[in-house]
Amino acid sequence: MSHTVVTTTTTTSTSDGGFCNIGYALSQHGMLKIGQVVTLLIAFLCVHCESQWTDYSALRYFEVVTVWFLIVFLFFFLMYLMRLQSKIPCINWTLTEFLHYAVGGILVFIASIVAVVKSYGIPSLVAGSVFGFMATFLIAISIWTSYKVTCGSQPTAV
Fold first, then answer.
1. SS3 of 148, please?
2. What is the pTM of this model?
């Protein structure tokens, strides 16, 4: 009497194991980073393309903050997309990203408040500050999810 045992295993992977982790771009964290980059880009362009500025220093501050964190968030997105964080394990990337989000959230929020106060009803400056507030909201979501990963519930020994 012979017995045949068939074992099947199913693996679900969102990445193909190649150079780029396309699954990350389609994940919640990846889409959140894409949303942050897009809203910061729109906020920057709304303020930068306006020719009727009334307070140059305040709006330049808004531009500098939005472009800086646009570049930082794009760097983090590309780093995770190309799996570079696994090549440099000596850096705690989750904590680094959390700190950048915390500083970025505060500075983008302050810049958006300054931009809306100094806009004097100019529509493109108001739109830029609204997109700044939207980016702040997306950054707050990233801070929350990053905090849950970094400092989430720790198992307790009984």
1. helix
2. 0.78
CB-neighbour burial class of residue 4 (10 A; exposed 0-12, middle 13-18, buried 19+): exposed
Q: What six digits make up the tokens of 16?
A: 């193909």
- In sequence order, what DSSP letters do the residues of 46-103 get, joined into one string? HHHT-S--S-HHHHHHHHHHHHHHHHHHHHHHHHHHTTGGGT-TTS-HHHHHHHHHHH
Is the separation of the CB atoms in 69 and 105 below 8 Å? no
Q: Are 131 and 45 in contact (CB under 8 A)?
A: no
What are the tokens at 10?
């199913």
In this predicted structure, the answer to whether residue 46 has a pLDDT above a threshold of 70 is: yes
Tens of pLDDT, residues 126-150: 999 999 999 999 999 988 887 776 5
> In this structure, is the dihedral angle defined by the CA atoms of residues 41, 101, 65 and 73, taken in order, positive or negative?
negative
- Residue 82 — φ and ψ, nearest 5°? -95, 5
Residue 31, phi-psi category: left (phi > 0), alpha (psi -120 to 50), beta (remainder): alpha
Would you call 157 exposed, middle or buried from its count of C-beta atoms within 10 A (0-12, 13-18, 19+)?
Answer: exposed
Quick: pLDDT tens for 10-20: 444 444 556 78
